[in-house]
Design brief:
single chain; 413 residues; alpha+beta; seven-stranded mixed sheet; four-stranded mixed sheet; 5 helices
Length: 413
């Protein structure tokens, strides 16, 4: 959506009477404003029972229509359901010239859960209405399933760094509110030996919380909808040449996809040929070589079907215990560096740069510059506040200064 169209839409929403003012039906207004149309929009809310039956929602449910432009919120309108579960809105704007860039999200709050729906406001027709169906709400996790969608390993001098993505899906008929679980959320422990978890920065803190080496998901998992994705980075210290992976979940585990490098990777000074081996569950290990000669071992477990509490198990071999460093400050620094690669900058210590190889320093420098670019784009899209950007930019700049100083020292040695 171009800036002129967005500005016109924003001005119209802030001054709803302008386009319908008397004296020429908008004569003298900019074209985008003059062509703005406003509509009475009824939203009919239906409620699905656990048995699957659908009936009108009760009166008094809060309903919101949020208007977006270019992916950013422009304005929202509020109403409540009345007779027959219908909430009535007035003055909802449309504009034929920029309609393809205007989005509408209807949100209904029922049983303490907010149900979002993308809606097509126009054309509704003379008797038309936006119709949405909310589900009954449960607190039981019995119908949830967990997939380990991507577990990837990055060996470094001291730790095995893990980037781990999981998906929670709901196979039942009711929305599951996990905030009512014991402990205030669904407990998802790291594998035995996992430490220092860092969450993906896009995950709202009110939905996912780190407590020690456990993650607690406190959100709602909707039935039949898009799975809930959780991504975390953590470390596993080298103690033996083989690490026996064992990870339990409080819900059924249905699949896993694991990737390990089997040769020297970018930024590494030595070959670290990791291996993957199945342990009990059905699974297939395959070797892959990508363009550029990078080699990987891939373990696929497409039909795990592990009951709650039954561990996912496999083995990672070829760990470099002979060159193991003692645990210390470097472990935390390495985790932050890897988190920068995937999640953007969260803050990093400035005194450990000298202990990294030149390749690590240069890689981190490049990643920090990319992180700054991602932050700027996030501000432009309205996903990051200017105040947060200034704090992150200050921290990144401080880290970049230390990196350039360390590179200068290496040049002189």
């Amino acid at each position: 959506m171009n800036r002129l169209a967005r500005l016109a839409l924003a001005l119209t929403l802030l001054a709803p009477a302008a386009a319908t003012a008397e004296g020429g039906g908008g004569a003298g207004l900019p074209p985008f404003l003059a062509k703005m149309q406003r509509h009475e929009v009824p939203v009919r809310v239906l409620k699905r029972s656990p048995a699957g039956d659908v009936s009108p929602a009760p009166a008094g449910l809060p309903v919101t229509i949020m208007i977006t432009a270019g992916g950013s919120k422009v304005r929202s309108y509020d109403a409540v359901t009345g007779e027959g579960g219908v909430a009535r809105f007035s003055g909802i704007p449309t504009n034929p010239e920029v309609q393809e860039s205007i989005g509408y999200v209807v949100t209904v709050q029922s049983d303490g859960v907010k149900f979002p729906f993308k809606a097509a406001i126009v054309p509704l027709g003379p008797e038309g209405a936006v119709e949405v169906v909310v589900d009954a709400v449960s607190t039981s996790a019995d119908e949830l399933a967990l997939r380990h969608t991507h577990v990837e390993f990055f060996p470094d001098e001291e730790n095995l760094v893990v980037r781990h993505s999981m998906e929670l899906s709901n196979r039942g008929r009711t929305a599951v509110d996990l905030s009512m679980q014991p402990g205030g959320g669904l407990r998802l422990p790291l594998p035995a030996g996992g430490k220092h978890p860092e969450l993906h920065e896009d995950l709202p803190q009110e939905l996912v919380e780190v407590r020690g080496t456990d993650l607690y998901y406190k959100g709602v998992v909707l039935p039949g909808g898009r799975p809930t994705e959780i991504t975390v980075v953590y470390t596993i210290a080298y103690e033996n040449s083989v690490f026996e992976w064992s990870q339990t979940a409080p819900v059924r585990t249905t699949a896993a996809f694991i990737v390990a490098p089997t040769g020297r990777q970018s930024g590494q000074r030595v070959d670290l040929p990791l291996t993957l081996t199945t342990r009990g569950e059905a699974g297939v290990v395959q070797e892959r070589t990508l363009d550029g000669g990078r080699r990987f071992s891939i373990l696929r477990i497409p039909d795990a079907n592990l009951a709650p509490g039954q561990p996912l198990r496999f083995a990672i071999g070829g760990l470099p215990t002979g060159n193991q460093w003692k645990l210390g400050a470097m472990g935390a620094a390495l985790l932050v560096v890897v988190a920068l690669v995937f999640f953007g900058f969260r803050g990093a210590p400035a005194g450990d740069a000298d202990r990294l190889s030149r390749a690590h320093l240069e890689n981190e420098r490049d990643r920090l510059h990319k992180a700054l670019d991602r932050l700027r784009k996030a501000v432009d899209k309205g996903r990051l506040s200017p105040a947060r950007f200034e704090r992150e930019q200050e921290a990144i700049t401080a880290r970049l200064v230390s990196l350039y100083r360390a590179l200068d020292r290496l040049e002189k040695t």
